[in-house]
């Protein structure tokens, strides 16, 4: 019999759940009933449970108590206040980031096979943190542990993991989009975009196609664009023949440097905060690619709503493009 459906004689309480975890017992049977019960609490009761989770996690071993972090995240996902997520969750993440920063990279392939930068419990705590951070711009801005966590980024897994990406999300930020081949540019505003797959999709939605503000390319279907902003997930695939690049990749002939090793390309796997500013503004170059890229539609954090707004044409786009092109070393 499937014990996810076999209800215990008496519904387990939060204290039963904590006691089982502290004793190292299997909680597979009772966990679904505890999580379901928490989803039906009122606001005050949810906040109280979050406070109790804070107390237990603060004084216990994370490797045994990580299901409590998942419960805290589930409470937020089902309507709880993101600000009530236990602060100990962020403190533990900071501790793990700090410990990881002190670890050297594997010296050889044999060491790499067994190299584990972060413990398994970290990913459960991170999942809870993402539930809260994705639902609160204020929390992303003012999280007390934010600067300390980001100061400990040393490894690829940290840089491109969920925590650093989330804490690096641009909030209501202005970017400049340039199409050097036609001397056109636009002033845009982005918010809540977590990675460059999503950014690339929203650029296609804003500019791909014909017309005075169009750039040759295939525009997204409306439901695919919504999935990249604030709509339900989509199982569609996105394709693009564009190459996105930073201002440093613009060559004097106003083409984008085709050498990806030169360091100027905007890779879909990265995130918008990595785009290098030019005269104080992040600049995105759009040009043709030598191959077609494809990726899954949607967004990394379903709870994080995103927007991309074209505020208007850049009046002096040709002059800006010329100035940028003049600063780049000519192609040899």
Characteristic key phrases:
alpha+beta; 2 domains; 6 strands; 14 helices; 42% helix; 15% strand
Commentary on this structure:
This protein is of the alpha+beta class and 332 residues long. The chain has 2 domains: 154 residues, no CATH class; 155 residues, no CATH class. The protein is built from 14 helices and 6 strands. Strands 1, 2, 3, 4, 5 and 6 form a 6-stranded mixed β-sheet that branches. α12 packs across α13. The radius of gyration is 23 Å and the shape is elongated. The N terminus is likely disordered.
Number of strands: 6
Radius of gyration: 23 Å
Oligomer: single chain
The whole-number mean of residue pLDDT values reads 93
| Helix count from the secondary structure assignment | 14
Structural class determined from secondary elements: alpha+beta
- Net shape: elongated
Q: How can the largest sheet be summarized?
A: 6 strands, mixed
SSE topology sketch:
Blueprint: H1 14-22, H2 31-39, H3 43-59, H4 62-77, H5 87-101, H6 109-114, H7 120-133, H8 137-142, H9 146-151, H10 156-159, H11 162-167, E1 173-179, E2 184-191, H12 196-207, H13 222-229, E3 237-245, E4 277-278, E5 281-296, E6 307-313, H14 317-327
Parallel strand pairs: 1-5
Antiparallel strand pairs: 1-2, 2-6, 3-5, 4-5
Helix pairs in contact: 3-4, 4-7, 5-7, 12-13
Quick structural gist:
With 332 residues, this protein is of the alpha+beta class.
């Amino acid at each position: 019999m499937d014990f996810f459906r076999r209800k215990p004689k008496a519904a387990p309480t939060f204290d039963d759940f904590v006691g089982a975890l502290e004793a190292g017992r299997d909680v597979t049977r009772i966990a679904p009933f505890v999580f379901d019960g928490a989803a039906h609490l009122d606001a005050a009761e949810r906040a109280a449970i979050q406070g109790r989770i804070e107390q237990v996690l603060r004084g216990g071993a994370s490797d045994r108590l990580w299901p409590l972090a998942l419960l805290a995240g589930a409470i937020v996902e089902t309507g709880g206040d993101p600000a009530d997520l236990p602060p100990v969750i962020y403190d533990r993440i900071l501790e793990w980031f700090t410990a990881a920063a002190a670890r050297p990279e594997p010296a050889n392939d044999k060491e790499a096979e067994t190299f584990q930068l972060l413990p398994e419990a970290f990913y459960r705590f991170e999942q809870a943190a993402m539930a809260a951070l994705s639902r609160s711009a204020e929390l992303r801005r003012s999280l007390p542990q934010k600067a300390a966590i980001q100061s400990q980024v040393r490894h690829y897994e940290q840089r491109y993991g969920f925590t650093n990406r989330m804490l690096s999300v641009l909030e209501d930020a202005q970017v400049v989009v340039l199409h050097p081949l036609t001397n056109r540019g636009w002033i845009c505003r982005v918010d809540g975009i977590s990675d460059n797959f999503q950014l690339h999709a929203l650029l296609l939605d804003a500019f791909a196609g014909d017309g005075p503000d169009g750039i040759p390319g295939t525009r997204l279907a409306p439901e695919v664009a919504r999935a990249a902003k604030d709509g339900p997930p989509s199982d569609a695939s996105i394709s693009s023949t564009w190459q996105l690049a930073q201002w440093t990749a613009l060559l004097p002939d106003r083409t984008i440097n085709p050498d990806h090793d030169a360091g100027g390309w905007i890779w879909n796997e990265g995130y918008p905060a990595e785009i290098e500013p030019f005269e104080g503004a992040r600049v995105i170059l759009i040009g043709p690619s030598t191959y077609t890229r494809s990726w899954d539609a949607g967004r990394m954090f379903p709870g994080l709503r995103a927007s991309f707004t074209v505020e208007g044409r850049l009046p002096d786009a040709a002059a800006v493009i010329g100035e940028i092109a003049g600063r780049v070393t000519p192609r040899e």
